[in-house]
Amino acid sequence: MASITAIAPPSRLNPGLPPAQAQSTVDEATTIRVYDQASPAVVAINTRTGGGSGSIVDASGLILTNAHVVGRDRVVTVRLSDGRTFEGDVVGYGQDRLDLAAVRLRGNPTGLPTVPIAPLNSVRVGQSAFAIGSPFGLQGTLTVGIVSRIDTERNVIQTDAAINPGNSGGPLLNSSGQLVGVNTSIFTTSDSGGSVGIGFAIPVDAVQTFLASVRAGTATASAPASRINREPAAIAAGATVQGQLDDSSNVLPDGSFYNPYRFEGQAGQTVTIDMSSQDVDSYLILLAPDRDDFSIQDDDSGGSLNARISTQLPYTGSYLILANTVSQGESGRYQLRLSQGGGGQVSNGQAPTRPSGVGLRQQGALGPGDRTLQDGSYYQEFTFQGRAGQNVLISLESPDFDTYLILVDDARNRVGENDDANPNTTNSQIAVQLPRDGTYSVLVNSYQRGGRGRYLLTVE
User: Fold this and answer.
1) 0.90 cut: is pTM over it?
2) Which residues are catalytic?
3) In CATH, what number is assigned to the domain containing residue 258?
4) Residue ending a domain, choose from 204, 225, 250
5) In-domain check, residue 400
6) What pLDDT digit, counting tens, does each position of 293-351 carry?
7) 212 phi and psi angles, rounded to 5 deg
8) Sorting pLDDT into bands at 50, 70 and 90, what band is 194?
9) What DSSP designation does 117 have?
């Protein structure tokens, strides 16, 4: 039986290449430079009921933060990194419950330090991420991680840089010290709650649009309803619950309502989650606390406007289900069911076996931390059950790297491989008639050593 490192095509192998190393921690000099550059422009914001962080975005005292940080207060207290304190007027809120707000400092200060904003479309999965804020009231605290995922449908950045209470509203920065997002934590359900390893930030495109409206004087002037932090409700396998999404629900950074549920799962257990509604366009999100590498989302796999996720769980422990909607502010009743068994989406890189005849649609990110082939290129592996004579079409797309597909059987014999589906694309495709009954493995791979980023894999 050939080893996994021997299945790359000979033209791609280079015996002189050293084995790929695990992702190294961002170097100390970069961390110090980013902090020294950005921290003077990161402020602490205090309100009557709480507080958070913010970023000075122009030298005259305009501060960017979260709407849920300022709440319904129209005047807040702002403490600069040098110890000076100002009162600030809340001058605008994000539209459609977008969790952004702007504060203008009183007293006409000048020459303030500022946080530069990164160019549009410059953030990438796998790049270093730095969060600065005031968690638990400790101003000027730095946490470091990577950009774990870019969710284009929900327009949020996912990061494993710890975002605790008090970090909300502060900047998520790249290694150049530029703001790539505004931190907001959705799984902290009380003032004393800590990071669960899954942080989210509102990205630059939404930030730029909001700041333009503030500067033009057209930003929403009325405060949104207070954001709710509903604790996850327990749900057991086989249970069906009736729920309601409305102003009493939690709110995602994109302004959509969600209700959280928690269940305990076992590694290798297959579960199916169904969300159905006649009132809203259902959307499901499945996450594992403390596991930023696991995230599954679905819109319409349940048929019509209903959502369904079916997966083999990769870990033993707690899982979070978010019963959500496609659009901002959608409200109405729904039914949520958690059951064992079924087929559907697959968790990132865990290679669960799929029933024959069931299509696979998997979104993920390839990069540091994944296994490597002999040539040093990253790969993730997914499996399915196939039948002799069955026609299978496998497609791999990515906006970030030159894709490569490899299909092997259960004896690790290569059944098919492809670099480019046609000369005008870097996407890959394999169309093959399976030679025998058994388990087949699809390797999501990059053509080049070090290639990384988002991908979409489909098996039909």
Assistant:
1) no
2) 68, 99, 168
3) 2.60.120.380
4) 204
5) yes
6) 577 878 877 778 898 888 888 888 889 899 999 887 789 999 999 998 754 333 333 33
7) -60, -40
8) very low
9) B
Q: Is residue 441 part of a domain?
A: yes
Q: Residue 379 belongs to what domain range? A: 4-23+367-459
- Distance (Å, whole) CA 153 – CA 214: 25
Residues 333 and 283 in one domain: yes
C-alpha 305/C-alpha 325 separation (Å) is 10
The pLDDT assigned to 221 comes to: 82
Judge if 396 and 452 occupy the same domain.
yes
Is the model's pLDDT at 243 over the cut of 50?
yes
Q: 402-413 pLDDT, tens per residue?
A: 999 999 888 888
Residue 219 in domain: no
Phi and psi dihedrals of 134, rounded to 5? -125, 60
> In whole angstroms, what is the distance from residue 165 CA to residue 183 CA?
10
Q: What share of the chain is helix, strand, coil (3-state, %, to 5)?
A: 10, 45, 50
Same domain, 184 and 247: no
Residue 331 maps to a domain: yes
Q: Answer yes or no: do 314 and 242 share one domain.
A: yes
Cα–Cα distance measured from residue 209 to residue 197, given in angstroms and rounded to the nearest whole number:
29
Cα 280 to the center of its chain, rounded Å:
23
Cα–Cα distance, 361 to 363 (Å, whole number):
7
Residue 200, exposed/middle/buried by CB under 10 A (0-12, 13-18, 19+)? Answer: buried
Query: Does one domain contain both 163 and 240?
Result: no
Final residue of a structural domain among 279, 305, 340 = 340
Reported in sequence order, the residue ranges of 160-269 that DSSP labels E, i.e. its strands, are 171-173, 179-184, 199-203, 233-234, 240-245, 250-251, 257-265
